[in-house]
């Protein structure tokens, strides 16, 4: 080990006897005392410089020791003993989470595999040998920069992913002409397993999708957010997804870029094989044309942008449906019971009606469907929020676990409603410690209860939350990511 300079501490510092008495008094020194004090002060100051130099050396040596300790601890780090397979799994989790994080910087999403590959030689070998690590292709054409570099990077992603199924997310919100980059992605359409496309008016990419027809056998999940005029949307997407034999999850959100609102369009899709569907509808007629074809649907979300007074001529049974969400785009839409009146869903577990459907229609739907013992999550708007209506709904669903009740016009749950629900809960709940009912009241003008805190009721497994009105949470909105997570876990 390298020799280090040493320092010998001097004898204990003591004051000369002739001036020590001055330290505890305010007396002025005389001639001899002044000379003794000056000489002693000079001696003390002479000891200070070498001591400071030695302290600096000690500080430097301390920093070197800390650095060396950290370096040698890394030799014993457990991550060095991880099998390559487990390290690759960790890499995949990091890249997948970054890919799904909507708040991530778009550039960083694509850079993660490269960063991992540059840490050390071992990580480089693992990253390059993990083909699925390069199968998450995120392409934000709005920030693409040098197109030639982007083409080369995109090609390299596809090469390193081998034959792995691809998860592709393409964003073009400024109508950029980056056909060369997009063509690289299109060339591998037969490997798409999950495909997400975000477009706005003026984008040329939708037109290029015509070339993927008949090449989508592996596709299981499709998400399209598009802002276009009706004509260009119909023309661009009319046949692109006609043949996709394994497609089961679709999330469509198409809106009119001219500001006329949301609309749906007749994209031919394999409706009968879909298990998860979320889409906007322009009218009841569109709903009636699609619903009878959804024979395998498990989770369904429909957002209505308009409505006509069409009365369904027949009842539509969705025997596999477990989650139904009915939303309407405009706050001032009048109450609608259209969908509840035409559907029968015998095994439904989750029902959300974001607008004020009549309580009677909901009760008839539950009775007709025979789903009273399967429904465990129910959300509805009531105006006003009344004891009778709320209790009638709860009584119709004996297995209810989550109840959401909202009134956009500032209706707030008072003690009468809460106590009535609590009493009913105590009379019907089982005696298990895990039994619980969560009730969320929402109002339009603010949060908080007008009648005090209901927290004490939680000891009975009865939970009350009074909050500011917000759009009811959808369990379907995240299904696009859920399906990709399931795909990853099955790899």
From TrEMBL:
Full protein name: F-box domain-containing protein
